[in-house]
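Title: Comparing notes on inverse folding

I've been comparing how different people in this forum approach sequence design from structure. To keep things fair, I'm posting one structure and asking everyone to reply with a full sequence. Here's the target:
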């Protein structure tokens, strides 16, 4: 009677692992990774980019046109895809949790592509450990669950690479890969780095893996490359035509191209090709020479031509991906999320390959240095390092959720707000630019004009979100402090503390800057008196300019506050000793 094989052993055999113990360890680590990601979604603080992207998504659901009505410097596919989802969910303070969860499948697409690539390059065993090594790597782990363009952009890029590796390259497969890269461009113009990396890596890999009929193959691969390029133009070209037909071409071009080129001007002293062009050329040539040398070693170590091509191709992509970002791209907008999965596959596969090669030479390893022990130790070390840097005890999502809850309770959908990047999400912004690093530096250098105070006045903006208030210019910060009072954490509304005239303790003269409906309060009570010569009977619209209130009580502790804040039970948090909160 044949011996019955356990399920764990069959699974270990399928993943080509050393035995059930290694499989169980990998499965436990995979479970921990899933648990950590669930905790991250619910507890890790919301990044300002998440709020900014969500505001653009919201704008589409309310009839605004990206670039024309709201500023953005990203390609629009990410926002267009999630607009119907946001419309279905509706305006709610927990919206960022929902959007993280809805984007989560892309995390698993990235994991699957990492596994598929590593499997094609090395083995299923390498594929499984590559996913774990990638998942626990801090720089990837801490952003992989966020609602940001990179988490759609990266899986699309990996699908493109996977389609070029999984089978023999054909014209049809080249078209599919090109369309996938086109979708990458429709999400982010950083895909230029992808295209440059592929443009160099593919012919280099073909050149290193020589065959007898190389001439015919080069002609065939040239056809594949032309088809790939045609496919990559299709999606972004369609988007560009769409905005041109809608009459938004100029705004689209400024947001996607001109504004991003502004980064070159602002960060030119930090760009290697600007600072030291000769050194940049030397670095690029040296990188090319070193990559070719290592590529030749990879080819000579592989007995299979197809495997040699795939390994050198992915290796070249990683090398030139990093090189082009470091040499050509502004530091503020670099993203290595497309690099980490490929590098993880190469690193894990390299450990297995090195172990086999040294075993063949008769080298004897201590058990801890064998892949079955070494790789779990590496992944565990990654996890410990990750948790030591970013403990999971604290819930960091409450601040943004509280802000959204207060904004929804305080304002109407038509009320303008002043914030930095759209962190109030569900309300139109009075100030068009987004206050991120490029804009802030451009304002400081006089390249862009900071007219936030004028925009607040012109749009009668009565609400300011100060969560990212450190990004305000000094003049804007002073404007906010003097004309808005705190009513909740990170939230101010139009108003001011009123002080009696030195000559007459009953008279309080003040200057309104933001026209709106106001009420005058004394602590939590209404007051009586005369406002601008007529009896004060509650909320009244006050135009910009000087006003005067004569109090019957003669109190100096009066507050002028936006009437809607009082109606909706948002008391002023300013005190007499701290008039600006």
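Reply #1:
Here's my take.
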């Amino acid at each position: 009677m044949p011996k019955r094989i356990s399920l764990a052993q069959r699974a270990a055999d399928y993943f080509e692992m050393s035995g059930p113990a290694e499989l169980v360890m990998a499965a436990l680590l995979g479970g921990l990774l899933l648990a950590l990601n669930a905790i991250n979604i619910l507890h890790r603080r919301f990044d300002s980019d998440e709020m900014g992207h969500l505001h653009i998504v919201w704008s589409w659901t309310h009839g605004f046109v990206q670039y024309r009505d709201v500023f953005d410097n990203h390609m629009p596919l990410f926002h267009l895809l999630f607009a119907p989802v946001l419309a279905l969910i509706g305006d709610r303070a927990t919206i960022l949790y929902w959007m993280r969860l809805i984007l989560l499948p892309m995390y698993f697409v990235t994991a699957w592509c990492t596994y598929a690539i590593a499997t094609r390059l090395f083995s299923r065993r390498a594929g499984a450990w590559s996913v774990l090594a990638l998942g626990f790597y801090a720089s990837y782990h801490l952003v992989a669950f966020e609602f940001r363009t990179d988490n759609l952009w990266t899986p699309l890029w990996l699908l493109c690479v996977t389609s070029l590796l999984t089978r023999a390259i054909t014209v049809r497969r080249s078209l599919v890969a090109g369309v996938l890269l086109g979708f990458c461009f429709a999400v982010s113009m950083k895909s230029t780095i992808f295209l440059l990396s592929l443009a160099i890596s593919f012919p280099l890999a073909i050149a290193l893996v020589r065959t007898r009929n190389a001439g015919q193959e080069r002609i065939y691969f040239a056809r594949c490359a032309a088809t790939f390029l045609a496919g990559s133009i299709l999606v972004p070209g369609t988007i560009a035509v769409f905005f041109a037909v809608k009459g938004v071409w100029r705004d689209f071009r400024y947001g996607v191209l001109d504004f991003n080129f502004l980064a070159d001007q602002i960060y030119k002293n930090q760009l290697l090709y600007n600072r030291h062009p000769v050194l940049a050329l030397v670095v690029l040539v040296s990188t090319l020479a070193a990559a070719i040398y290592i590529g030749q070693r990879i080819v000579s170590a592989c007995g299979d031509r197809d495997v040699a091509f795939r390994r050198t191709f992915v290796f070249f992509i990683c090398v030139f991906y990093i090189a082009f970002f470091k040499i050509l791209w502004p530091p503020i907008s670099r993203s290595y999320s497309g690099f980490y999965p490929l590098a993880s596959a190469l690193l894990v596969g390299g450990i297995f390959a090195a172990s086999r090669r040294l075993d063949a030479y008769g080298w004897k390893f201590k058990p801890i240095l064998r892949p079955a022990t070494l790789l779990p130790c590496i992944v565990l070390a990654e996890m410990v390092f990750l948790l030591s840097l970013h403990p999971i005890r604290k819930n960091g999502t409450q601040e943004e959720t509280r802000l959204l809850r207060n904004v929804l309770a305080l304002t109407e959908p038509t009320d303008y707000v002043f914030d930095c990047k759209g962190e109030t999400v569900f309300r139109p912004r009075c100030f068009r630019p987004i206050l991120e690093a490029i804009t802030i530096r451009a304002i400081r250098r006089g390249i862009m004009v900071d007219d936030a105070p004028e925009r607040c006045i012109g749009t009668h903006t009565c609400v300011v979100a100060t969560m990212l208030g450190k990004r305000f210019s000094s003049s804007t910060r002073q404007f906010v402090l003097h004309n808005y009072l705190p009513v909740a954490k990170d939230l101010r509304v139009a108003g001011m503390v009123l002080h009696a005239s030195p000559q007459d303790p009953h008279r309080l003269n003040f200057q309104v800057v933001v026209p709106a409906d106001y009420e005058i309060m004394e602590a939590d009570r209404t007051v009586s008196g005369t406002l601008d010569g007529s009896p004060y009977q509650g909320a009244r619209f006050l135009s910009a300019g000087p006003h005067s209130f004569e109090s019957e009580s003669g109190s100096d502790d009066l507050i002028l506050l936006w009437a809607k804040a009082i109606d909706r039970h948002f008391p002023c948090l300013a005190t007499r000793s701290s008039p600006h909160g």
